[in-house]
Structure prediction request, 289 residues.
Amino acid sequence: MRKIKIPKNYNYIGVFISLKCNLNCDYCINAHRKEDFDRNYKEMPAKDWIKGLNRLKIKDLPITLEGGEPTLHPEFYKIVNGIRKNINIDILTNLQFDVKEFARNINPKRLNRKDKIYIPIRASYHPQRMDLEETIEKIKFLKDKGFNIGLFVINHPSQTREIREAHKRCLDEKIYFWVKDFLGEYDGKLFGNYMYKGAVNQKETEYVFCRTNDLLIGPDGNIYRCHKHLYDKTNPAERISSKNLSINNQFRDCYDFGNCNPCDLKIRTNRFLQGNDCNIEIRRLKDEA
Prediction:
């Protein structure tokens, strides 16, 4: 099987095996500025995911299974256990699954990376839809089973009390806790720190050149240059199952600048916990003149 080389500057591989979700949060980044966002994305079967992902030539860069909620894929465990053992796997999850079944089906060693820098199982806590004590108990159970898991919460301005409470409980229980920036609009104000001014929630769009250092794969196996195109099902660049697949970080034309998904242009912390990072590089025509 021909191996597919990942460019050296790539920082993240996001594998959205399902966009279905068992929560319905008001601030969901998947549905940013799209009320009719469709979660019923065609999903590739496990055999195709395993074949496609095992082609990737990766050193220390983990594959992150996410969504939606990745455990809603009907063959979730088959996918996890079918990926090559020398490929690191991370999971983004809302923990709305049977943790006992999870522990029975996955060996914790399969998810525990050697570098120890970033938590491989990142559980999101959404106070609107989740019970804190139930969430804490699930995390404690998985930790007791040997899984490296932490709790991540969105710093939504309407949930400051709930965030403080969750932080205190995690300190008490010695659970890793991380607060992520809220991205998007709330009460008429745009929240988030973005690398490029005018990238999000503009009335008009601008033609630019852009390139990414993230590999984003949709539930159907198509590779997208950004989260906006993945969620909108538009402009796929390649397909993970393509016989002649080639992954590069060349600049491409884009007509959507100004209507970007906040995830793409946010100033973030990368997998090495280094700040001031952004997964998209933009060249604007006015800068080229």
